[in-house]
């Protein structure tokens, strides 16, 4: 009886959605508490529950896997916000594109720098390279470069969580108050999770972040094959 309940997809779908909605209510009461960011809260609580009850990830995935089906459609749906705010893209397209491209280049350089510092092998370098792009694209990039796909997914999620939690604080520290700049920063560094935070911050931030996800992903896909000779040389 217990096994049939635990292996029910509806149990894990309902639990995950319920935790997300609960975090939304808690966020309304304590808006400045980063722990109540819905995506962060739901992920942390699910992990703690699985560890405390010794339930395997395979059991959770009987229902949890359905959420991955919506990653790509949800990313594409962000184009709706971009359409509503297309005037900002037309006005600042040069700054937006240069910001995204420079962000990708700097991120790639940092990955190689840390890989050399900590003496990563080829597989680990390839695993970390797509950490700042959305999961749907990162999986393909990691696999094509010879990375560890499952670890790439974990790193992508962790990167997104960090961006969603600390992004707004970073903006305050460095006095970044332009909504376009905020959106581009969140989308190009912490993909969908950062975009969730950007949408909370405002309509313009959400639109620019959604655009940045797509452009960042495309740039990484284009640059990934070019990094293979460098990766082989360094590792």
Question: What would you note in describing this structure?
Answer:
There is one protein chain. The protein is mainly alpha-helical. It has 2 domains: 1-69, no CATH class; 72-234, no CATH class. Helix content is 84%, strand content 0%. The chain contains 12 helices and no strands. The chain has helices spanning 2-6, 9-29, 38-53, 57-68, 71-77, 79-84, 86-117, 122-128, 135-145, 149-173, 179-201, 203-234. Helix 8 runs antiparallel to helix 9 (135-145), helix 9 crosses helix 10 (149-173) and helix 11 crosses helix 12. The longest helix has 32 residues, at 86-117. The N and C termini lie far apart (51 Å). The relative contact order is 0.12. The mean pLDDT is 86.
Tell me what portion of residues adopts beta-strand conformation: under 5%
Radius of gyration: 19 Å
Instruction: Summarize the amount of helix as a percent range.
Output: over 70%
Q: Would you list the SSEs in sequence order as H and E?
A: HHHHHHHHHHHH
Briefly note the structural class of the backbone. mainly alpha
The overall pLDDT average reads 86
Quick one: how many beta strands?
0
Low-pLDDT regions: none
What best-fitting shape do the alpha-carbon axes yield? globular
* H/I helix tally: 12
Number of domains: 2
Task: State the end-to-end CA separation.
Answer: 51 Å
